[in-house]
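Case study: Phosphate acetyltransferase.
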Amino acid sequence: MIINELEGKVKGKGIRIVFTEGWDPRVQRAVIDLQANDVVHPILLGSPEQIQKCSEENGLDVSNIEQIDPLNYDGIEEMAVKMVELRRGKMDLEQCRKALQSSNYFGTMLVQMGIADGLLGGATYSTADTIRPALQLVKTAPGQPLVSSCFLLVKGSEQYIMGDCSININPTPDELVEITVQTAHTARQFGIEPKVALLSYSSMGSAKGECVAKMAEAATRLKRMPIDFEVDGEMQFDCAVAPEVAALKAPNSKVAGHANTFIFPNLSSGNIGYKIAARLGGWQAIGPVLQGLNAPINDLSRGCTSQEIYKMAIVTAAQKALGI
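Here is what the predicted structure looks like once written out:
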């Protein structure tokens, strides 16, 4: 339902989304449908030979999709000069020219220069390959000290948000505060009024440990802030979602038993948690949605399907339309 609502908000707006892997059949299938449904204006990156070979081998027609070859782009010198300026002495002109042969750097510069509105990559690249150019060139948004991620979990009419599941390895209490605020903002973009639970293996001091302490500290700091959403923690997952458990473990909490937005203490728990939900629980995981960047740039799982790419393109366009 959320994706359908977001699709309605971006449809017909001509939002230009760069796809860094134009030679991938999953990407090609997705952009054909995206353009046919007037959801976004897709731009495929890659050499004409790569793109054509893929389309012919898979019986696809992308001849009416905009395509750009990073190795034969008229504005490459202007782009390289701009990139030198952005890198502030960390890369010279020749190094920038070489980096721009990569579709990740090239696509990110298209977004940075306003030629495209957003970028979607990672069907064949690692998360680091997608995020590194974004951090170096687009950078974080004003007032945002870090980049984080979240997943939208959907099953039927139920939906939850989980973060951070793909970026920050072992966030500090300060970083957890930022991740929580960013994730609550994303939840609202998706039409979810956030009730945020900071997760741990302890509920309201029932156990001790470094992980418990940092989640409790993050919750304390958040409650002191002028935020406009409900948050509580630390708490176990059953306490966060089951009212009967919450009545025993956190009877005075406004979040426990009713949480819809979950903040994990580290990358291991977050990544494992969302994948268990997706693989064993039958939840559809949409993401990772990147948060804190100065432009809509998102990463794909290398195991993604064309339908998942389609949905992530809608999310990316919605970040542009609704304001990231």
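For the exam, be able to explain this: The first strand starts at residue 16 and ends at 19.
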